[in-house]
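Q: Can I borrow your eye for a moment on a structure tokenisation matter? Would you mind producing a protein record, from residues through to fold? Write it directly below this note and I will take it from there.
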Amino acid sequence: MKEVLTFGITLFAICNIYSQCPGPAPCAPGTFNNSFEQIDPSSIAGAVFCSGQTRTFTISVGPGTTTEAATGDIEYITLFFDFDCDGVFEYSVNDSCSYVNPGGCDVDLAVTAPVVLSSTTFNARAHLVFNTPTSDPCANLPGFSNYGDIIDFTITVNVPPNPTLTSNDIDNLICSGDSVTYTATDGDEYEFYINGVSAQAQSTSNTFTSSALSDGDVVTVRALDTSNGCDTFSSGITMSVVNPTITVQPVASQTVFAGIDATYTVTTSDVDTFQWQVSTDGGVLFTDIIDGTSYSGTSTNTLTVLSADIDKNNNRYRVVTINNLAGCSPQNSTNGLLLVKVRAVISNRRITYRIKKT
């Protein structure tokens, strides 16, 4: 939503009121001939500045009371402000437009309001002259420049909200699909954004919940004070989103001779913890295993079954993968079957000998 710039047109004779700066010393408006082009009062009426903020607004130049300027006539608009409250117009902005007959032209002017701690009213003057710009708010330029207009007015500068934005995830590191709730403060209405795109329309709700965030998404909120027309964007919260995945599963089945190592490996992304398990009942129940004389790498992505013996024949192995840092749910790999064979057997008098090939 655009900021709204409010001008309340007020005579300087009544400008010394509460929270209003002293007015400048009176100066005659010169001998401008208002039968020619004039400032459209509605283009500087009825809006609000917000502390420290810059906005561009449009000043319209239209026909005079009896005569309309010719197409191509150059019209200069200057806005003067007393932002330091010393009774003198020190701040000014100006630009020009080329008149189009019939109708007029517009001048776009960007104005930066002073920083205030409470709502404050300042005095201002709009100055229109033909053909030649002026830097003097009280100027009465000779020649054709006496065609023009002056409007004295006041502007009120309000204090915008100073929002904070927090999430219910302390480190803002989440798993893909996790729901996060954001809470904003210091406004009476709020609009939430993801990467600068509105994600929850302006409303009185100061919370926003999303489960569709991606890694690197930035969440912000625009807090509004609807009583004075000011708004402010919060600082952004950048989300880190992980999606733990097993991209390569363990080999489905492998055969080794007794006494030979067997290995099972997985390839993963966004995984920081591994726990290998074994099943001795065909894959119905799995139990954790640890490094020792039978296994190594039980907490890595590669498990080694050390010197597999015949007692491990038909075992099944799988790994449980986790991203503990983000608190993601565990994922189980598929399981790999281990078949262990004896190289050669000589039997004599009910005694079996295993012969190791050399």
In short: The chain has no helices and 32 strands.
